[in-house]
C-alpha cells in the first residue's frame, strides 16, 4: 500500500522529490545500484537487467540491457555496480564467473563493453574504486580477488585469501589503496592493492560466513560487517588490532548492510532468508531498530540509499519481483511499540528495574528500597540533533538488593546435595527427601513428599506377631492389614452386635450386621449344632483344623493375653452345602421372633452353619477398602508439579519427576519436562554443582537432556614416553609401540582408574600412587619431578 507523503531535498543545486512507491519487475532482482545523480537505478538478476528512471510518482523503464537472440550466461547477474564518477559505466558479476563492463554511451543496442573471464566460479561481488575511474575489483567463489584496469584486457593483480569463497569486497572511501574482503570462514581481510602477495590485516569477525561489509562514509576507520550469525558488527580499524565498537543483534542472517548518509550511527540491513523487512538501526541501541520498512513480500536482495548525502530515500529490490522506493518518514518505528519498562531478578536476589526517565522523575515522593546498598544507576543517552526521532525515551535503571542474608540460596545447594533421587525404594526416597526438606525449614515441600509416599506407596505388611492367632498350623507370615477383619478395631455399634453375652438371658436378634455389603448370617434348626459339644460361639479360621483349634468368642473363656480376634479371609472347609444367596431381613426377623427358638439357641445361631438356605461369612477381599488407586491422583500431582515450577522451584518439580518416574511422566508433555530439566541444570551449574547436574542428566529420560553429558566431551591422551597423541584403540602407542598406561609403582598395565601427574605425565593405579606419595614426594618413575596429589 503506497503512502502519499512527499519529501523534497535540495542537494547542491539539484532537488530530490518523491514518495513511497514501487513497481513490478519482470523477474526477481539480485542486486540494484544507483547512478551518481540519483535519477536512475539499475536492477540486475538472473533474468532481468534493466535501467529505470526515478520520477516523482513512479518508476519508468528506460533501457533493457538484455539484448540478443539467444540468452547468455553473461547476462545472468549476481551483482551490479554503477560507477560514481562516470554515469555511463556499469559492471556486473555473472554466475558463470565472468565480469562484464557496460558502456551506456555506445550508440548500438548492445551496450556490452569488456568481458573478463579469469574467475573459475561465480563472482559474488564487484566494486569500482571511489576515485579512480578505471579500477574495478571483483571477489569470487573460487577464493580469489582480482583487480582489473579497464584500459587493459586482463587483470593487473590477483589476491588470494588462502581461504574459502569471497562474499564481499569494498574499497575504502578514505584510504586510496585499501580494500576490505569478507570470507565464508568468518574472516575479514584488509588488503593494499599495491601488495597482492599478502593481506595487511586479518581477523575473525563472525561465527560463520561474513556476507557483507561497508565502510563508513564519514569515519575513516569504521567498517560494518554482517554475517550468518545474525549480527552486525562495527569495527574500528584505526587501532593496532581491529576493535569491535558496536554490535547489533538481528533476527536473521544479514545479507546487505549500508550506512545511512548524514547519520553517523545509523545503518540499514536486510536479511538473506526468513525475514523480508528492511531495518534501520541506531548502533547505540542494538536491540530495537529505529525504523522498519515492510513493503516486500519476499526476501530483500539489494538495498541502496538514493543519494550519498540524502538520508530520506532508500531503494530496494526483492525476490518478489518488485522495486521499491521507501520514504524514511513513512517507516514504522518499533521503538514506539516497545515496552519501556523492564524487571529482572539476579541470581542472588538483586532486583533491577528500568522505566522511562520521565515516569521516574514524576514520582517526587519515591523512596529507594530499604535494602538498597547501592545508589540507583541512571543511564541517559544524549539525543543526536540529526536524528528524526526526537521522542526516543531515555531509560532510568534502578538496582536494589534485598536484606543481607535473606536472599541466601544455601537451602538450594543443601537440598540439591542431600536429595536422594534413585537407588532406593520409593517409600524410602520420599521419607528421606521429606526429612531433608523439614530440616531445612521447608515444611510445605516436606508435606508434599509425605503425601506422595501415601499416594504411591502400598500399605505395609503386618508382621506375624502383630496379628492375633495367625490362624493355621505353621503360619509364619502375617496377613495384609486391609484383608483382615479385626473385631477390636470395629465401630462400637458393630462390636456390640458381634460379641455374644451369655450372662444375659433376654432374646436377641439372630442377625449380625457386619457391613452394608457383608453377608447376613443366620441359622435355622440344626440338630448337629445343638447336639455338639463344641461351643457354637467360635470364629471361623483359615485352617484345616480340628475342633480344638477353633477360638471361643465367649468373653468368660477368652484368653486374656489375646484380646483381639481377626476374621481371616476364608473359613475352614465346611461339611455342608453352601448357598450363596442370603435371605432377606424379614426372614431373619421372623426366625428371631419364633417361639420355638430359645435365647441360647438364638445366640448360637448367629454364627452357626446352615444346611441349605444360608451361607457362612467368607471374606476374600478387603471388607472396607478406602484406598484409591494412584492414577486417581495423577491430575492432582501434575498440577502440583506445575505449581512448583511456576513458583520458580524447578528443583522440586524435577526431583519429583525423577523419583516418581513413569508414574507421572506420561501425564506431562515432553516439551514441558525438557524446559524444567534445562532450567534446573542451568541453576545447578551456576552454583557449580557439577556432580548433581550430571546425575540429573543421567536420570533423565528425555533424549534432549540425556545427551547433554555425551556431547562435546573429548579426552585427548598422549603417550607418556614419546608425547605423541594416542589412538583410540588399545593401550599401545602406534609410534613407539610401548604401553602408555603403565603404573610407575607396580609396572603393570592400568586398565581401570588411572591417575597421572600433569607435570611429568607419569602415573599409575590410584591406590599405588597415593601410597607412594605418603612416603615420598618424588615421582615413582625416577624422573626427579616433585609430584603432588590433592
Shape: globular
Unreliable residue runs: 364-391, 460-566, 580-624
Distance between the termini: 73 Å
Query: Over all CA atoms, what is the radius of gyration?
Result: 45 Å
Structural class based on helices, strands and sheet pairing? alpha+beta
Mean pLDDT over the full residue set: 75
- By DSSP, the count of extended strands is 40
Output the number of helix runs. 16
Relative helix content: 10-25%
Please give the largest β-sheet: 4 strands, antiparallel
The strand order across the widest sheet is 3-30-29-28
User: Strand content of the residues, in percent?
Assistant: 25-35%
Key features?
WDR24; zinc; 4-stranded antiparallel sheet; GATOR2 complex protein WDR24; globular; WD repeat; alpha+beta; ubl conjugation pathway; Herpes Virus-1; 790 residues
Describe the structure.
Keywords: Autophagy, Lysosome, Membrane, Metal-binding, Repeat, Transferase, Ubl conjugation pathway, WD repeat, Zinc, Zinc-finger. InterPro entries: WD40/YVTN_repeat-like_dom_sf (IPR015943), WD40_repeat_CS (IPR019775), WD40_repeat_dom_sf (IPR036322), WD40_rpt (IPR001680), WDR24 (IPR037590). Its main location: membrane. The protein has 790 residues and is α+β, with helices and mostly antiparallel strands. Among the domains are: 342-383 and 390-400, no CATH class; 409-456 and 630-711, no CATH class; 729-789, Herpes Virus-1 (2-Layer Sandwich), CATH 3.30.40. Helices cover 18% and strands 26% of the residues. The chain contains 16 helices and 40 strands. A four-stranded antiparallel β-sheet has the order 3-30-29-28, with no helix packed on it. A four-stranded antiparallel β-sheet has the order 4-5-6-7, with no helix packed on it. It is globular.
Amino acid at each position: 500500500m503506497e503512502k502519499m507523503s512527499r519529501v523534497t531535498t535540495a542537494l547542491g543545486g539539484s532537488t530530490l522529490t518523491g514518495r513511497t512507491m514501487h513497481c513490478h519487475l519482470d523477474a526477481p532482482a539480485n542486486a540494484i545500484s544507483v547512478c551518481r545523480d540519483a535519477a536512475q537505478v539499475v536492477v540486475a538478476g538472473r533474468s532481468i537487467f534493466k535501467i529505470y528512471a526515478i520520477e516523482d510518482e513512479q518508476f519508468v523503464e528506460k533501457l533493457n540491457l538484455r539484448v540478443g537472440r539467444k540468452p547468455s550466461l553473461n547476462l545472468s547477474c549476481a551483482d551490479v555496480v554503477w560507477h560514481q564518477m562516470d554515469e555511463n559505466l556499469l559492471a556486473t558479476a555473472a554466475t558463470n564467473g565472468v565480469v562484464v563492463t557496460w558502456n551506456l554511451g555506445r550508440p548500438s543496442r548492445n551496450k556490452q563493453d569488456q568481458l573478463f573471464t579469469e574467475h573459475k566460479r561465480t563472482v559474488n561481488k564487484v566494486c569500482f574504486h571511489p576515485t579512480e575511474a578505471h579500477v574495478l575489483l571483483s571477489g569470487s567463489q573460487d577464493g580469489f580477488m582480482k583487480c582489473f584496469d579497464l584500459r587493459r584486457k586482463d587483470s593487473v593483480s590477483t589476491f588470494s585469501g588462502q581461504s574459502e569463497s569471497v562474499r564481499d569486497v569494498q574499497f575504502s572511501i578514505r584510504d586510496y589503496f585499501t580494500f576490505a574482503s569478507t570470507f565464508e570462514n568468518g574472516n575479514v581481510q584488509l588488503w593494499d592493492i599495491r601488495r597482492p602477495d599478502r593481506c595487511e590485516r586479518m581477523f575473525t569477525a563472525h561465527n560463520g560466513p561474513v556476507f557483507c561489509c561497508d565502510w563508513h562514509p564519514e569515519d575513516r576507520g569504521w567498517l560494518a560487517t554482517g554475517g550468518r550469525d545474525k549480527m552486525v558488527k562495527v569495527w574500528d580499524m584505526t587501532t593496532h588490532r581491529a576493535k569491535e565498537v558496536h554490535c547489533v543483534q538481528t533476527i536473521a542472517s544479514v545479507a546487505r548492510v549500508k550506512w545511512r548518509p548524514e547519520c553517523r550511527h545509523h545503518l540499514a540491513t536486510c536479511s538473506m532468508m526468513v525475514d523480508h523487512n528492511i531495518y534501520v538501526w541506531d548502533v547505540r541501541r542494538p536491540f530495537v531498530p529505529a525504523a522498519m520498512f515492510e513493503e516486500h513480500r519476499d526476501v530483500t536482495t539489494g538495498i541502496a540509499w538514493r543519494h550519498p548525502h540524502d538520508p530520506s530515500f532508500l531503494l530496494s529490490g526483492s525476490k518478489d519481483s518488485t522495486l521499491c522506493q521507501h520514504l524514511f518518514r513513512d517507516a514504522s518505528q518499533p521503538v514506539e511499540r516497545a515496552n519501556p519498562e523492564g524487571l529482572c531478578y539476579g541470581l542472588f536476589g538483586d532486583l533491577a528495574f528500568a522505566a522511562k526517565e520521565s515516569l521516574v522523575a514524576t514520582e517526587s515522593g519515591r523512596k529507594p528500597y530499604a535494602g538498597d546498598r547501592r545508589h540507583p544507576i541512571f543511564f541517559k543517552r544524549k539525543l543526536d540533533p540529526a536524528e528524526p526521532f526526537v521522542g526516543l525515551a531515555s531509560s532510568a535503571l534502578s538496582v536494589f538488593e534485598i536484606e543481607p542474608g535473606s536472599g541466601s540460596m544455601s537451602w538450594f545447594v543443601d537440598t540439591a546435595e542431600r536429595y536422594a533421587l534413585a537407588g532406593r525404594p520409593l517409600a524410602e526416597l520420599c521419607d528421606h527427601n521429606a526429612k531433608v526438606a523439614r530440616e531445612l525449614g521447608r515444611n510445605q515441600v516436606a508435606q508434599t513428599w509425605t503425601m506422595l509416599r501415601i499416594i504411591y506407596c502400598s500399605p505395609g505388611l503386618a508382621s506375624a506377631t502383630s496379628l492375633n492367632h495367625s490362624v493355621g498350623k505353621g503360619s509364619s507370615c502375617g496377613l495384609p492389614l486391609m484383608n483382615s477383619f479385626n473385631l477390636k478395631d470395629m465401630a462400637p455399634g458393630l462390636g456390640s452386635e458381634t460379641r455374644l453375652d451369655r450372662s444375659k438371658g433376654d432374646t436377641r436378634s439372630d442377625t449380625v450386621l457386619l457391613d452394608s455389603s457383608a453377608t447376613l448370617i443366620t441359622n435355622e434348626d440344626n440338630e448337629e449344632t445343638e447336639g455338639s459339644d463344641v461351643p457354637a460361639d467360635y470364629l471361623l479360621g483359615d485352617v484345616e483344623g480340628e475342633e480344638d483349634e477353633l477360638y471361643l468368642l465367649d468373653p468368660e473363656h477368652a484368653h486374656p493375653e489375646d484380646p483381639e480376634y481377626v476374621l481371616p479371609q476364608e473359613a475352614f472347609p465346611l461339611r455342608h452345602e453352601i448357598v450363596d444367596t442370603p435371605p432377606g431381613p424379614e426372614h431373619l426377623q421372623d426366625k428371631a421372633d419364633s417361639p420355638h427358638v430359645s435365647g441360647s439357641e438364638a445366640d448360637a445361631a448367629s454364627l452357626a452353619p446352615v444346611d441349605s438356605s444360608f451361607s457362612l461369612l467368607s471374606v476374600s477381599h478387603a471388607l472396607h477398602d478406602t484406598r484409591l488407586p494412584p492414577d486417581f491422583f495423577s491430575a492432582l500431582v501434575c498440577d502440583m508439579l506445575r505449581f512448583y515450577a511456576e513458583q520458580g522451584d524447578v528443583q522440586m518439580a524435577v526431583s519429583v519427576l525423577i523419583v516418581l518416574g513413569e508414574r507421572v511422566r506420561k501425564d506431562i508433555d515432553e516439551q514441558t519436562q525438557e524446559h524444567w530439566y534445562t532450567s534446573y541444570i542451568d541453576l545447578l551449574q551456576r552454583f557449580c554443582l557439577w556432580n548433581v547436574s550430571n546425575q540429573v542428566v543421567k536420570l533423565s529420560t528425555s533424549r534432549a537432556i540425556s545427551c547433554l553429558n555425551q556431547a562435546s566431551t573429548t579426552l585427548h591422551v598422549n603417550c607418556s614416553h614419546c608425547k605423541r597423541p594416542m589412538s583410540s584403540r588399545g593401550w599401545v602407542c602406534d609410534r613407539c609401540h610401548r604401553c602408555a598406561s603403565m603404573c610407575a609403582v607396580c609396572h603393570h598395565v592400568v586398565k581401570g582408574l588411572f591417575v597421572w601427574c600433569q607435570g611429568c605425565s607419569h602415573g599409575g593405579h590410584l591406590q599405588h600412587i597415593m601410597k607412594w606419595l605418603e612416603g615420598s614426594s618424588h615421582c615413582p618413575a625416577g624422573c626427579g619431578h616433585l609430584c603432588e596429589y590433592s
